[in-house]
Write a structure and sequence with these properties.
By secondary structure, this protein is mostly helical. The protein contains 7 helices and no strands. The longest helix has 24 residues, at 115-138. It comes from Maritalea mediterranea.
């Protein structure tokens, strides 16, 4: 079961918001993780340096918490690796059809009141609710 951690959630959400605003304000770019990642994969775009730095910063977060507080970041994964791989493939297909992911549409697009992003995020969330319900309550897995 996931613990309720409102303080950490507010801090994390605030940092995501600040990073999104800074990326838009300083570089005129949307902080969509899928688009950022796609820009460093072949055929890579010419502005891949900031994309690599952005992704490294996202990955380095748990390490920074450990270095600042000395407390290890607790991570538990009750889902088997095959399910994570399958989920990743399904999500990858979905972000391709949805022209982006929840970071770009949900954080940046909705903040700009983009109707397309609001519709995309609502679709992502509905799909997630249905998938979790089917997998947990109908199939009885996980």
């Amino acid at each position: 079961m996931t613990e309720f951690t409102p303080v950490e959630a507010i801090i994390g959400g605030g940092l995501i918001g600040i990073a999104s605003v800074l990326l838009m304000g300083l570089h005129g770019r949307i902080a969509g993780m899928t688009g950022i990642l796609a820009g460093i994969l072949p055929p890579a775009v010419s502005d891949k340096v900031w994309r690599i730095v952005f992704l490294l910063g996202a990955i380095a977060g748990p390490l920074a918490i450990f270095l600042l507080t000395g407390a290890p970041v607790d991570f538990q994964n009750p889902v088997p690796i095959w399910a994570m791989i399958l989920g990743g493939i399904i999500v990858g297909i979905g972000v391709n059809y949805g022209s982006g992911c929840t970071s770009g549409h949900g954080v940046c697009g909705m903040a700009r009141f983009s109707i397309r992003s609001i519709a995309a995020t609502a679709t992502f969330m509905l799909s997630t609710f249905i998938t979790v319900y089917v997998v947990r309550h109908i199939l009885g897995v996980f």
